[in-house]
Specification:
- Keywords: Membrane, Transmembrane, Transmembrane helix.
- This is Membrane protein.
- InterPro entries: DUF3360.
- Helix content is 68%, strand content 0%.
- The chain is mainly alpha-helical and 453 residues long.
- It has one domain.
- Helix 2 runs antiparallel to helix 12 and helix 5 packs across helix 11.
- The longest helix is centred in the first third of the chain and has 29 residues.
- The radius of gyration is 21 Å and the shape is globular.
């Protein structure tokens, strides 16, 4: 397959659908519901908005992104661009964004501008190229391990909150056995639908409570409704002060894109056949897609912050499927789920949600990271990246370790000697300085108070 990057790609002529495309489609739909709901809930809590707002706003994002940026952009016009999903690492910062006077529409506009600049300048792909095997492996290991521990803890906490702690153990242990079996027979690409279904069956059979609460419906796509003074977000249109308050958060969001995109691209490279280079995601094109998605969906009312869609790309890579077929199916499924309503309740139910993230995202990331560490030099770079990530966060760990590694201060000195001045100092140095300053401004550096209150 040789997809046209900026042209018309048609099913049957330029790509085809396979049964395996359903796997990333189901996984991506679950991921979109989960992450979009989480981001919107956090904003709603900060701004004092009710559950009815959350449901309608999630529907707006799911339908808009699915139609324009999943089906049309990544499915038809540029299958080299990964789907534009949700930026999960920004979730903890949403209360601080609201408290600092940031406006979701101003934030989205700034993210779009910075993302397009980075893409046009080829900065995203350049950052991917100058990141060594060891640093990338350490980043994936850290992300996978932290995510795995977090989701296991979330299932345990959910079960204990019901005074039914044994249900959490049964769900985790049962899915451990199923996942191990699927890996043993080479069918790991089936893990998200089968393990999610198995988690639901175990939890329900052991007496876990569940009920449907969301009915069918269509949201408003009128920007004046969502950005009015008394309707939608009830914030009105943003002013200059809103853009100033949103500036450091927008810089940080785009700074976090490169390690995110790097992980997804590397995961493709590790799972796809060696000759499948023409269907690997293009980092710069994906950044353009994310930038356009950010501003368009924000204009029609969404408050979601975007990044490369990991819950789609990782299962697609495991299933060894190119982007377009699964993208179109993901878009169709997401639109159906958003309109129907009740499937959203299933996707965000704790045992289904956490197991889907475990087997579809975090465990594959952990495994891929370990596979990338081939020798002692890689292990040293990976260990340094994990250590630095634990000090602050994965963005800090990746940026700092990349700079040190490219200058021969850790790991492979011979690799550093073969790099030019720009790849050794300029790109890694700017990446570290810009991302660290942005984190310091919003209070993400431990012990340093936020400059924005």
């Amino acid at each position: 397959m040789r997809p046209k990057r900026w042209g018309l790609n048609l099913p049957g002529r330029d790509f085809r659908f396979e049964w395996e495309d359903l796997i990333p489609a189901i996984a991506g739909t679950i991921g979109l519901v989960v992450m979009c709901t989480a981001i919107t809930k956090s904003f709603a809590s900060a701004y004092g908005l009710d559950m009815a707002f959350i449901v309608e706003n999630v529907r707006v994002d799911m339908i808009a992104v699915s139609l324009f940026f999943v089906i049309l952009f990544s499915g038809i016009f540029n299958p080299r661009a990964n789907l534009a999903g949700i930026h999960g690492p920004m979730l903890p910062l949403i209360p601080l964004m609201a408290a600092s006077g940031s406006h979701p529409l101003a934030l989205g506009g700034l993210i779009a501008v910075f993302g397009i600049i980075l893409s046009v300048s080829k900065g995203g792909s350049r950052l991917v190229k100058v990141t060594s095997q060891g640093v990338a492996g350490g980043l994936l290991v850290y992300l996978g391990a932290i995510g795995t521990i977090g989701q296991v803890g979330a299932i345990r906490a959910w079960a204990e909150s019901l005074n039914l702690g044994y249900i959490g153990f049964a769900v985790l242990f049962g899915n451990f056995l199923l996942y191990a079996y699927l890996a043993r027979i080479g069918k790991r690409w089936l893990s998200i639908p089968l393990c999610s279904l198995f988690a639901a069956v175990i939890a329900l059979s052991l007496g876990a409570p569940f009920e449907f609460t969301t009915g069918p419906g269509l949201p408003s796509f009128n920007p004046m409704y969502w950005w009015g003074e008394t309707t939608g977000w009830k914030l009105g249109l943003p002013g200059m002060t809103h853009f100033i308050a949103a500036l450091p958060f927008a810089i940080l969001a785009v700074a976090m894109w490169s390690p995110d995109f790097l992980g997804h691209r590397i995961f493709q490279e590790m799972n796809y056949p060696a000759k499948a280079k023409h269907v690997l995601m293009d980092v710069d094109d994906t950044m353009i897609g994310c930038s356009l998605r950010q501003v368009v969906t924000n204009i029609v009312g969404s408050g979601c912050i975007t990044s490369s869609w990991g819950t789609y790309m990782i299962p697609a890579a495991i299933a060894k499927r190119p982007i377009p077929g699964g993208a179109i199916l993901t878009g169709v499924l997401s639109i159906v789920v958003a309109i129907a309503g009740f499937p959203m309740d299933i996707a965000v139910w704790r045992p289904v949600l956490s197991i889907a993230l475990l087997v579809g995202v975090y465990l594959p990331l952990l495994e891929a990271g370990m596979e990338m560490v081939h020798n002692t030099k890689d292990a040293k770079a990976a260990g340094a990246c994990i250590f630095a990530s634990a000090i602050v966060n994965p963005v800090f760990g990746w940026a700092l370790t990349m700079f040190l590694d490219n200058n021969g201060l850790i790991a492979d000195k011979e690799r550093a000697a073969g790099l030019n001045l720009v790849d050794r100092f300029v790109i890694p140095g700017l990446g570290f300085i810009i991302s660290t300053l942005a984190m310091a401004v919003v209070g993400m550096i431990p012990g340093i108070p936020a400059l924005i209150k």
